[in-house]
């Protein structure tokens, strides 16, 4: 087996991030320190995804895309929980805003770009309709139970679940996501495998040592990203307040930050005519975001006695419903063109516009 050397930049960014965290523990994290943290966190995110890809290549598909999705979800969940703990009252709706933003970014932004770029290059692209349909079915159930039903389950509480309802919603989310992972990796693994036979499938996988090193660096990167994001949060909030943007913009920024590297990975796969891998990455990330983030923030909310708003307003419910219907239509045939990509991107633009100009 050919030994694979870890690129220097994938080690340098996590090390630099740890250095910034050390400096921030002694000085006020403003000015140059905040600017450096903003640059370093982006590089560390890409390093984390690189190491996740190394581990993913070693374990093979569809486990590989699952590793990437879980890595992104761990980052996102840790960011949300850290902000919730630091400012509990002001951030009651942060989890909802971030999860909703992640779903819209994935299902309209990332999927739309993949369909548009892949369709422009190959005219039509094919994928496993059974796998995509299974993912959309679980996504529809998860989003409805966690983002829509809270606004109707206990009207006297507003967009909140009562404590027993919140516990039940967290357990149901875990069951649904766990069932999907079982189907994806064991029961019907062939539904999620790319049909194309290209050189990427047969590329020499990394050695066990390289995979082990990448796994360790992945953990370091994730911890560093959480720490840097916590440093940057006050600066981001100050900037949003100065621009007079809605507080929901914070959730969009967090979701966009953690999904950016996965977006590039999905686009690379689409450009190689491997739309199945792109959909595995995108939809798997959306499912992991809801299926794992909601139970985590629910547990934090219950343990600390914090308010947790999950229910969307009517406008966002309409956008979510439109996204789910559109996704089922788009992914219901096994073939896509640039038209579906344009439609998804238009819906994404609508989401961003109404988030900034409510």
From TrEMBL:
GO terms for cellular component: plasma membrane. Gene3D superfamilies: NCX, central ion-binding region (1.20.1420.30). Pfam families: Na_Ca_ex. It is found in: Membrane. Keywords: Membrane, Transmembrane, Transmembrane helix. Its main location: membrane. GO terms for molecular function: potassium:proton antiporter activity; sodium:proton antiporter activity. It is a multi-pass membrane protein. Residues 34-185, 214-356 form the Sodium/calcium exchanger membrane region domain. The chain crosses the membrane at residues 31-51, 63-87, 99-120, 132-153, 165-183, 210-229, 249-267, 279-305, 317-334, 341-357. This is Ionic transporter y4hA. It comes from Bradyrhizobium jicamae. The lineage of its organism: Bacteria, Pseudomonadati, Pseudomonadota, Alphaproteobacteria, Hyphomicrobiales.
């Amino acid at each position: 087996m050919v030994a694979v050397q870890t690129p220097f930049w994938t080690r340098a960014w996590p090390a630099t991030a740890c250095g910034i965290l050390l400096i921030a523990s002694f000085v006020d994290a403003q000015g140059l320190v905040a600017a450096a943290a903003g640059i370093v966190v982006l590089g560390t995110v890409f390093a984390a995804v690189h190491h996740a890809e190394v581990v993913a290549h070693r374990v093979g598909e569809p486990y590989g895309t699952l590793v990437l999705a879980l890595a992104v979800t761990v980052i996102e969940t840790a960011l949300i929980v850290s902000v919730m703990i630091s400012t509990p009252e002001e951030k009651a709706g942060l989890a909802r805003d971030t999860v909703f933003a992640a779903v819209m970014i994935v299902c309209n932004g990332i999927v739309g770009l993949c369909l548009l770029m892949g369709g422009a290059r190959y005219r039509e692209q094919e994928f496993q309709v059974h796998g995509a349909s299974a993912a959309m079915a679980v996504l529809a159930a998860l989003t409805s139970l966690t983002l829509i039903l809270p606004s109707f389950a206990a009207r006297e509480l507003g967009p909140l679940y009562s404590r027993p309802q919140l516990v039940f919603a967290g357990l149901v989310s875990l069951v649904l996501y766990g069932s999907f992972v079982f189907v994806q990796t064991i029961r019907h693994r062939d539904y999620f495998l790319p049909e194309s036979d290209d050189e990427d499938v047969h590329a020499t996988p990394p050695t066990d040592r390289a995979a082990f090193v990448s796994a360790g660096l992945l953990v370091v990167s994730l911890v560093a990203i959480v720490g840097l994001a916590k440093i940057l949060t006050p600066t981001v909030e100050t900037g949003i307040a100065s621009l007079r943007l809605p507080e929901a913009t914070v959730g969009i920024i967090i979701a966009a930050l953690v999904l950016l590297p996965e977006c590039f990975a999905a686009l690379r796969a689409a450009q190689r005519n491997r739309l199945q891998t792109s959909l595995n990455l995108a939809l798997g990330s959306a499912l992991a975001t809801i299926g794992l983030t909601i139970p985590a923030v629910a547990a934090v909310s219950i343990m600390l006695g914090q308010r947790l708003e999950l229910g969307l307003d009517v406008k966002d419910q309409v956008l979510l419903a439109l996204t789910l219907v559109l996704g089922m239509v788009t992914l219901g045939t096994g073939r896509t063109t640039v038209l579906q990509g344009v439609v998804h991107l238009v819906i994404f633009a609508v989401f961003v516009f109404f988030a900034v100009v409510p």
